Every structure is written in structure tokens, then in C-alpha cells.
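Support request, please re-run this one:
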Amino acid sequence: MTVISAGPVLAEDGLSGIGAIVSREIAAGHVPGAVVLVGQQGKIVYREAFGAMSLVPTQTQMRPDAIFDLASLTKVVATTTAVMQLVEAGRIRLDDPVAAYWPEFGVAGKTSITVRQLLTHTSGLRPDLDPAARWSGHAGALAQIAADHPIHPPGSQFLYSDINFIVLGELVYRVSGEPLDVYARRHIFAPLRMMDTRFDPLPAQRARIVPTDRQDGALRWGEVQDPTAYRMGGVAGHAGVFSTADDLARFARMLLDGGTVDGEYILRRETIAEMTGAIALPGGVRRGLGWDVASPFAAGMDAAFGPRAFGHTGYTGTLLWVDPSTATFLILLTSRLHPDDHGDVKLLREQVAQAVTLATRPHAPTVLAGIDVLAAKQFAPLAGRRIGLVTNQTGRDGGGRRTIDLLATAPNVRLAAIFTPEHGLNADQDGAVDSGRDAATGLPIYSLYGTTRRPTDSMLAGLDAIVVDLQDAGVRFYTYPATVGYVLEEAARRGLAVYVLDRPDPINATAVQGPVLESGLRSFTGYFPLPLRHGMTLGELAMLFNAEQRISARLTVIPMLGYRRSMWYDQTGLTWVNPSPNLRSVDEATLYPGVGLIEGANVSVGRGTSSPFELIGAPWVDGARLASYLARRDIGGVRFEPTDFTPDADRYAGRECQGVRITLTDRASLDVARLGVELAAAFHRLYPTQFRLEATLSLIGSSKVLAAVASGVDPRAVSALWRSELSAFEAVRARYLLYPSDTR
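Re-run finished. Output below.
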């Protein structure tokens, strides 16, 4: 077993690093030049031009006011905004069929396609018009679209489609009476004083226009690059707008300022929220109306910025991303196809976004998680390896980027497979989880909570190592430690290396509380004889399992930097990401071991409500009676109030339950084991015929504790029953602790 020292992490921090990033990409030949603009809190905080506007016929230095072909930014800057203005005016309804506005469209299986499906790319229409088809002009394109069939049933899956936005552009014309370019100029660009923004740039602007690519050997300069938009005459709903970074900054300010800039109204605040909020789409994709949030086209932006961020990219190399949580926006304009069509902006976008995130996050992480430490070491421990990654949505670095994406682009590392624990990749599923494929990387996802809970030979074929990046809950019966144990066992059998990227114990790693699991009760919710609250990180648990179970896997733990055992998760500076659908905050995670201790019985613990583990009850409970009894027990750190609730899922779904709301008042003084035993004793005492006390054994983990509760022993005295086992565990635990306990 190896622990890689975190050591000093040297990182280029803040906006000052953007210049070096862009210069490296220019030197590598990935882009000829770029303009980068960053705004925050209504001000431009960074605006620089790099490299060349044009490399042929002569090199021309890039200028900050250069005009770029925005490509698919047209979809949001012009078309989506126009559509949502018409929605506000009551002239378009999102759930109306498109044929209600364009009757000729409603044939060939397209009758049911709605405006909303066009905006979310779930219409089933093909990605683009057939380039070999014989058509010309705007009318020719529309005739092709009207005659075509969907290639998927509408609403069945996400498929990014330029045709969706060509249709939306046509709807703008049919509803408003103004062609899209005229409408956008009059109702969007002119009010926002975006004076350099338009379809079909003017001849007077040519000196500032950046060329895009070559068509038939000739340099394309001031004409839209997109082939379909070009054939349509330069004006289309999916492409064709040209603009500058300064103009886009005014547009971004409008989005952040509630729909107005300098007194000019464009959209209502509520419309912007609806337009840019994340919508879960088939295939694990999240998008807004027109706007991207987390799809294969997000180019890492979904991970670099916060969960409320949104934006869009363009094929020519353009990008606009907005993060309302920090009132920040990033504009990156480049022409990657000039001069030879072989440019690449993926790394440029990701690294610039990371620099912006590091500079603008209001609270930089105090703690660097294992993935941050690994990245700071340029992923050297994994060099030359073909790896599988056990992770879910909690696997993110301090800037919010997915560990999946970081490893997929890491130098000299080949990420070949993804493995997910209970609750799946997005940590949002209850019950068995199917295997699938990651929308962003195309990699296979193997569920370890479906037909198997162990990685199989076929899943592990060809791998050299397995990397684990998961956020644990700090509780014995949480299943992620069992998944890690099974991974260690299967890796050891095959000689595979295992790397655990460590993360905090969210309820601190000092408190060790509760009964130790009896060996005869081991299961997937009890992999090792741990106490209820074990006070260890997942990396430490992996070390303990590997040694004490004599697994002898080739284990390497990459520890956190800056972490101390006394830290609760909200003291680390890391952003909370739900590790499972019913652990949505540190408070819920703190109550989880105590309330969850009796979840095996016939009570609801609030799953299927907005307050899981803060509620407990059943249809046969008198809430006032239960709250009064528990209040008299004087349990430190919590308060009980009678309540009623109706879960919409899990036990008692759709049935009204009475019970108590548990409010955490002092987490430091809460003994979660006592809370759990008190709850078990209260239900058993007050409802001896209804409450199934025996069903709590697997989670309590001790038959003698269960027997004591059943016989009416005062819960305050029950802790004596586990004291000796707990002391023995603490002696074993001490061998595997990686982090200091002091808070200095």
C-alpha cells in the first residue's frame, strides 16, 4: 500500500494565467489568435487579444474589437432570445406543436413536435440538412425540412440539431412578420447597443472581421462559415451572426442583470430563469431552453463553473458562459478553422475556464481533494496506464470539473471505463441502476449496483488500474465503502493497481460513535465491523480494508491537502455535491446515521419529501405524542416538533404520515448513536404492536443492543454495551489515519 504525499501544489492562479494559456495554444498551432473577455459583478475585469487575426495573405495582429463568426452562439444570442420574447408576449407557447405556427411543417411524422422540443434538441429531427441534396436559398432549406421525417420519436432522446433552430428562426418570422435578422437587430441588438452584431456584416466592418476557413480554395472572410447557413443566404436560426467580445459582454450583462442593461428591457427575469435553468433530458444530458448546461457540447464548461452556470459554444471556436452564482461571464472568441481547418479549442476552453473559476469563486477551497493533488502532479502516478474510474457526480475537482473529464484528457493516461456505485452516475437513482454510456465522453458506464455489485472480468478486461473518486457519508451502512472493498478484492485477484483519490468525511473524522457491526451481520450495508460513525475518510477505510481483510491489493491513496480531521464538510471550502438523492446538505448527512439506524423498520424517514432524514413518522403515529416523548428525553444537539408529511416515493408513498421534524441545533454535541437508539426505543415504547423493532437489526448491527432496547433498557445506558468493542476498533483505526486532528 502506498500513500502519495500531497506535497506543495504549485498552480497558476487567477486571471494572470490566461495569457500563458492562450499563448501556449497559439504556439501549438491549435488557434491563430483569440480574444478573451471576463466580466464580474457588472464590470469587465479582463479583456485581452492574442496572436493574429489572419495568417494569410499576411499576418495581422489580433485586436480586442475583432469581429468573429459566432457560429452556434447564434442559437442563443439571436434565435432563443427572439423566441422567448415572443413567448413573453403570448404569441408563442412552448408546448404548442410547431405546426400551429407553420402548418406545412406538420407532415411526415412531425405533427406532435413542440416548440419546447426544438429548444431542447429532443424533437427527433436529424442534425443537419443533407449536404448532397439539391436545394438552394432559404426557401429551399425550408422545403427540405418540411418534407423530412424525424429519425427518432419526438421527445425520446437528445440529439443536437441545427434543423431545430432553423425551424425556430422560421417561427420568429411567421409569428412576428419580421425575418430573423431584422427581428434580432430591432428587438435585441439595437436596444442592447450591440452595434457590431449582425447577420451579413457590412463592408465597412471588413478590416475587423476574422477569417474562418477556406471554401473551394478561397479564404472565407465576412461570410458565414456554416455550410447550411451559407446556402440559405447567410441568415439562419442556427448560425450566421457575427459579433465582438464587447457586444457579447453587453448581452451577458443583460442575462445577469435580470433582462435589462442600462435601462433597456429585453427579457423578464423569470423568463431568463426558465430559459437557462437545467432540464434533465434523455441520456443524462442537462440543458436549458436553447442554452447548454451539461451536454456533450459543454466542452468541460459544466464542470468548470458552478451548477447554475449556462452557456453555449460555436463550431468556429467561440464560447459564451455565464455563472449567476458569482455574477461572472467568460467570452472566448477564436477562429480555429483558420487557416487549414485543423484547429482545436477544447483544451484552450477548459484551461481558460479553470483560470477564471479560480480567480472568481467567492471562496477558494481550503482543502484540495485527491483529484486536485493528482492534477497538480500532472497525473504522473497514472502515466502509461489504461484505467477504469469508479465515480459519480461527487467526483469533481475544486473548480467543479468532473474527474471523468480530467482523466479523459490527462496526458499519457487512457480512461477506458467508468464504474458507478449505488444511485448511478448522477447520484439520483434509487433501486437497481443500469449500465450505459457517458454522454460527454462516450465511455461505457458499468453499474456496480445492478446485476452485479462487483466488477467482472469483462468489465475489467484490458485495464491496468482502477481509480476511485467518491464522496463517502462517514456512516457504516452507507454502501460506497462496500463498493470500494469489492473493487479492492477483484483488483487483487487480477493484479490491478487501485488508486483512491481521497475526500473528506463530511460529518468530521474525529467522532467515532455507536455499536460495532457483529461479524455475522456483514452485508453490502456492512462490509467490515465498523461502528455506526467511523470517523475515517474513504482513503483511510480502503487502507484498513486492504490490510485487515488481508486483501493485499496494490493500493495507492492520494490524500487531500489542507484537510484536518475536525473539519465538517462545510468547513473545507469544497462545494457540496449530493452523494445520493437523499443526502442534500451537511445537516441531513449529520442526522443520517441516527435517523437511518431504524430505517429498516416500517417507518418513513422522509425519503420522497424535501427533508429526508429530518422527518420520521408513519400513518399510525401520533406526531404530538412522539414529539412530546422525545423532547423529554433531553437528547443533545436536536429539537423535535410534531409534523405531518406525505412522501411521494419510497415507504408510504402517497399516504399521510404523522411524526416529528428533527432540527439540528448543535451538531458538535449530537451523539448520533444515542439519537438512533432513542428513536428505536421511543417507537417501541409508544407503538409496541405496530413498530417492527426486529427489522432494525441489520442497521443497528448489534443483537445485544437490539435486545436491550426490546427489554426497555434506558437508551442512555445502552452505550455501555458497545464501549469495549468501540475502544478496540479505535486502536485498529489509529494505524490508518492520514490527517492531523488539530485545527491550528
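The radius of gyration is 29 Å. Residues 465 and 497 are 4 Å apart (CA to CA).
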